[in-house]
Predict the 3D structure of the following.
Amino acid sequence: MIQILILIFIGRWLYQLAKKFKKPNSWLYGLLAVVTYFVSSFIFGAIIALILLALGHDLYFTQGEELLLSLAGIPAGFGGVALLHYLLKRKWKREDTSDRGLLDDTIEELSE
């Protein structure tokens, strides 16, 4: 249940960012956030599995170990989405400021 709420939250987070910068198909960025969350969690789980294999631990988890791994995957997935949010926001801010400069130059040329 908590994962469903997290997915809704992170999808809405990137959707609102895309709306703020007036990107077409903003809902696709919400889906991208959900996919990024799952991929980040999967990569984190794979890294943990490789570390455990290297240490000689069997990969047959008990119920408690599975729960801990699932709970540890939540911050890993959220971290991946936060990184995506940061990179998109930085990219779109740069595009937005460069576009404003061109429009200002065009308006000044027309007024002369």
